[in-house]
Specification:
Blueprint: H1 2-17, H2 25-54, H3 59-71, H4 73-88, H5 100-150, H6 152-169, H7 174-192, E1 198-199, H8 200-215, E2 224-230, E3 236-237, H9 242-252, E4 262-268, E5 273-280, H10 287-290, H11 294-306, E6 311-317, E7 321-328
Parallel strand pairs: 2-4
Antiparallel strand pairs: 1-3, 4-5, 5-7, 6-7
Helix pairs in contact: 1-2, 2-3, 2-4, 2-5, 5-11, 6-7, 7-8, 8-9, 9-11
Length: 331
């Protein structure tokens, strides 16, 4: 960066100090001697004052040191032309032509130009760093979402296979149709797992098959109430998100009492999707509380990543009832 700066400075100096229009050796020497004090103050300013004082917000020390630095410009200028010139170039008679205030003015101009270059370079690097951070955060977010979505599949497969296994043990005629239904659901999981958004209609259909599958394993399937309301056409949602809450109902429900129920209702309003789940829980052993809650925490994390600020999740648990309401901003 500074090599280019000094190359431009030297070229400009040659144009200014050349009195004949042709670049002569003496013009090159004069320009070199003139730039020596400028190189000194710019180097000290860039590599010492900026990082050690200004970057650390030590403004008083920076200001005082800057004034002292400018005070060295004319002495170094005189040294270049009165002593250094005779020593390095004895065959030439060279004399400084500028007054002290003029030399200090040149020094101030060089500091302003070099500082602008430094600040511009730092600003560009800062933008690159911020862009890199954003890119890394985006990659991390995508990777985390993929990992969270992948956690859904084992839960789903385990519970569904248990249902089919119980039917197979009974040599039930339902087993083949249940296997076919599970196959369709697995195909959906495989096809939609990596997508950012899926059709809400397809997601509702997937949930319907899931509930139907679990109804088959219950002795009192009439205690499960699953209903939908509203127009799901043209709407989209993050895949395999609602299944975690629905699955949770079956996993922890107690249907042994006559008045026990699992109620799942999904409603699509004008700008909001509402999932309301309610299920009876064990009175003596509060299994919902004892559960590690991995699935719910998984869902919450996905909601934070995908619908941050656009959802609400309300969970209420009483002695024998667990109730959950999720609202998503899906218009």
């Amino acid at each position: 960066m500074y090599l280019g700066f000094w190359a431009v400075s030297f070229s400009a100096g040659l144009e200014v100090f050349s009195r004949t229009g042709d670049i002569r050796t003496i013009d090159v020497i004069y320009t070199l001697l003139f730039n020596l004090p400028m190189v000194f103050i710019v180097s000290v300013h860039s590599f010492h004052l900026l990082p050690n004082y200004l970057a650390k917000s030590n403004f008083w020390a920076y200001g005082i040191t800057l004034l002292c630095l400018l005070g060295t410009v004319f002495p170094i200028y005189n040294f270049s032309f009165l002593i250094l010139a005779d020593w390095l170039f004895p065959g030439y008679y060279l004399v400084g032509i500028y007054e002290p205030l003029e030399v200090i003015g040149f020094g101030a101009l060089y500091l302003v130009l070099s500082s602008s270059l430094e600040f511009g370079h730092s600003w560009f690097e800062s933008l690159q760093a911020k862009s890199k951070i954003v890119e890394l955060e985006s990659e991390k977010r995508v990777s985390e979402l993929k990992a969270l979505r992948a956690q859904v599949n084992p839960h789903f497969l385990f519970n569904s296979l248990n249902t089919i296994y119980s039917e197979a043990l009974k040599k039930s005629d339902k087993a083949p149709s249940l296997i076919l239904k599970l196959s369709d659901m697995l195909r959906y999981v495989v096809d939609k797992m990596e997508q950012e958004q899926v059709s809400l209609e397809e997601e509702i259909e997937y949930l319907t098959h899931f509930v139907d599958l679990h109804k088959e394993r219950l002795n009192e399937a009439e205690k499960v109430h699953f209903s939908t309301e509203g127009n799901f056409s043209g709407k989209h949602i993050a895949p395999l998100l609602l299944i975690i809450f629905v699955e949770n109902c079956f996993k922890h429900a107690d249907l042994t009492d006559d008045d026990a129920r699992i109620t799942i209702h999904i409603k699509q309003g004008e700008k909001e999707l509402t999932l309301h789940c309610k299920n009876s829980v064990y009175k003596k052993e509060n299994r919902m509380a004892e559960s590690s809650g991995t699935g719910i925490q998984n869902a919450k994390r996905r909601l934070d990543l995908v619908y941050d600020g656009k959802y609400s999740l309300d969970i209420n648990q009483h002695k024998s009832l667990y109730e959950l309401t999720l609202k998503l901003g899906i218009g």
